[in-house]
Amino acid sequence: MASRLLARSMFSLPLKTRFALLSLVVSVVLVAVKFYAWLLTRSQAVLTDALESIINVVASGFALYSIYLASLPKDENHPYGHGKVEYLSVGFEGGLIWMAGVYIFYTALQSLLHPHAVARPDWGMGLLAFTALVNLGTGFLLVRAGRKHHSPTLVGDGQHLYLDAVSTLVSCAALLLVVFTGNVVYDSAAALILGVFIVVNGYRMVRRSVSGLMDEVDVATVQHVVAELQEHREPAWIDVHNLRVVRYGANLHIDCHITMPYYFSLEQTHTEVHRIEVLVDQEFEVQVEMFVHADPCNFAACSHCRMPECPVRQHPFSQEIPWTLANVVKNERHQLVEVMG
């Protein structure tokens, strides 16, 4: 009865929370398996792998908490929501991985200078191969779910499990070399290589976290928005510029300036702005918050304006300037540059 209630409560949780909880449970189980493998083998490479897996447990716990925070609705103190905490989670995880890598590198260097025998490597290889397969499967599920639901936390956690699986496979290879050669130096050398590998990947995760927190441009998303505006472009949308896309976890905040005929009424302008907002919102599965600032046109834009039967046109239409990533992100009306340049 209790197990049924637990299963029901699990499936009642949001999807991202379920995946984060899965990661935490798997990490706890596998770190226990790896330390048992180390007790059997006393291998430095296995110890390195087990120590790195402790980070999995801490990081998965923080990831679960960050996903809970990111799911909270907007409030007075967080008018854009709580999604940014997912980038903080990735940075926290990356920082832990980096520190673990430094420590692992140090202990591996000591072991290389003072090698010791490895016991029962066959058992160690079997247990580690099992954990590698579990980590690969769980990591694949997390990365796929994170990309589908635009969760940096799940993607980061899944990639960390990939990293853990690679570390485990290297440890297995080191034990295999020890078995066939009898030289325990391979064990310490593998741990040393893993230390460097872990440090580099920890740095990359921190770098990705800083990019998100600093609102670094997501080129692919901006190009997607520009392509949709260009494809469904209306004559009344004379120009778009100062386009900015900011990601708050899974959600997007988009704002831009749209030039429209200066003689439009407030109601007409509002209608066109609403059409733009609906167009962009329909293109993304996540929540989109869009703000469009309407600018009045001037006569310098006439030669690039396709507005039919315009009552105030001063110049005949000559050519339409395509909207591209290069010109829509600038804080300037690019028609004026073309006409006056």
User: What is the string of SSEs from the N terminus onward?
Assistant: HHHHHHHHEEHEHH
Residue stretches low in confidence (pLDDT < 50, at least 5 long) are: 1-10, 337-341
Count of discrete structural domains: 2
* Number of helical elements: 11
Largest sheet descriptor = 3 strands, mixed
Q: From the 3D coordinates, which CATH architecture of the largest domain would you assign?
A: Up-down Bundle
Which shape, going by the Cα principal axes?
Answer: elongated
* Beta-strand segment tally: 3
Write up this protein.
The chain folds into two domains: 10-213, Cation efflux protein transmembrane domain (Alpha-lytic protease prodomain-like, Up-down Bundle); 219-340, Cation efflux protein, cytoplasmic domain (Alpha-Beta Plaits), CATH 3.30.70. Helix 2 packs antiparallel against helix 3, helix 3 packs parallel to helix 7 and helix 6 packs antiparallel against helix 7 (185-213). The chain has helices spanning 2-11, 15-41, 44-70, 85-113, 121-148, 152-181, 185-213, 219-231, 266-281, 325-328, 334-340; strands at 239-248, 251-260, 288-296. It has 341 residues and is mainly α. A three-stranded mixed sheet has the order 1-2-3, with helices on one face. Strand 1 and strand 2 form a beta hairpin.
Task: Give a short overview.
The protein is mainly alpha-helical and about 350 residues long. The chain has 11 helices and 3 strands.
Jot down its keywords.
341 residues, mainly alpha, Alpha-lytic protease prodomain-like, Alpha-Beta Plaits, 2 domains, 3-stranded mixed sheet, 3 strands, 65% helix, disordered C terminus
